[in-house]
Amino acid sequence: MMPGKPDSFECIFCNRSKRENLRLIGGNGAYVCEDCIRNSYSLLQKISDEEERRTQSPQLPKPAEIKKALEEYVVGQEKAKRTLSVAVYSHFRRIEAIEQSPKNSAVKDSSDLFKLSLGPKSQDFYNVELQKSNILLIGPTGTGKTLLAQTLAKLLHVPFAIADSTTLTEAGYVGEDVENILLRLIQNAGNDIKKAERGIVYIDEIDKISRKTDSPSITRDVSGEGVQQALLKILEGTHASIPPQGGRKHPQQEYMRINTANILFICGGAFEGLEQVIEKRLEKKSLGFGSELKLKDAKKTYELLKHVQPEDLIRFGLIPELIGRLPVISTLEQLDEEALINILTKPKNALIKQYQKMFAIEGVDLLFTNEAVQEIATTSLSRGSGARGLRAILEELLLDVMYELPEDKKLKQCVIDLAVVKKRKTPILIRENELKKTA
What we know:
Elements: E1 24-27, E2 30-33, H1 34-55, H2 63-71, H3 78-100, H4 123-126, E3 135-138, H5 145-156, E4 160-164, H6 179-188, H7 193-196, E5 200-204, H8 225-236, E6 239-242, E7 256-259, E8 264-269, H9 274-285, H10 287-294, H11 300-305, H12 310-316, H13 320-324, E9 328-331, H14 337-345, H15 351-361, E10 365-368, H16 370-383, H17 388-404, E11 411-416, H18 418-421, E12 428-431, H19 432-438
Parallel strand pairs: 3-8, 3-9, 4-5, 5-8, 10-11
Antiparallel strand pairs: 1-2, 6-7, 11-12
Helix pairs in contact: 2-3, 9-10, 9-12, 14-16, 16-17
């Protein structure tokens, strides 16, 4: 570039000059052509639009879309997935409706609240209160209760926390305070309170905090009815005070305040013995129904649990107030061998796919024969651990190989067949030189 000749000035980006009929903008020896300015502006606009799109909350998926997403990760449980899809959609749609409702919709005459002709633009319509619908999942261990809740949180891009109700006690006793559940949610939301207030909490083994007896006791039931009482407020909606470091509350601590009104609580439990409570109730009402049900031994428990009523849960040991805050109840059925095989192989995060990926990172192909997969499912079924037991079996089979895997650079294939699963021999390891011979 020659500073003395204006027609020789060049764009610092594309090196084109004024001689190519381009207008240049700049000074002090640095110029940019009109085309590069236009392209830069277009690029900045695209970046700005993308940032704005990312900051906007994702559109709430419809129930059918939620169920379809759940099917990619959870095998079977069609009824539970449908129930959860509707309940979760209704919950977050309720939040949207609250946020979008007119601020000047105060009712002057409360006697008009219960008119049947609620028009979509009437004062009464805007003052109908949409109550939160927390969810209770009932089913044997390893049937996918936790996975369903985790998948929902992932799909909806909201914070998620898991709590085990067996670790909870009433405030002042050894154990965890109920508020610690909310602390986990806040931490998983990156300490963003507003984000945490739209999260999902899964409380596992809710059946383990049932009352020990139907009649009141003279001793404190600090890990049973006492915990149920403590859960009531946060399930319904309250402004809870949370100690930022967890643990017990102390007067000198500064508390975080969180509103639980829009947090969705999903409670799950095996409720072993609940089917007997239901059966007694049904037999009293209809001997014919009860005798029919006894013929279906294979699915008797699930068939009974489908008929669960609040009164059955009260007899089991849950207090009526807690049941009232869990209006949506769904039952999950015991997984059979076919379902366990599908869990091992079909979902996006299928267990065998996960282990195959871990081996592939080390440059090794992990192969399972069909007979081996079936035997793994049969073993898990015999242990009564459902899908949860599948990972334990795979860990047992692959532990020694995974221990040596990072150092064994010549290993190329690991084969798991029926004999390996039945403990007759170790996994079949094929190294680089052996692979060439069979090629």
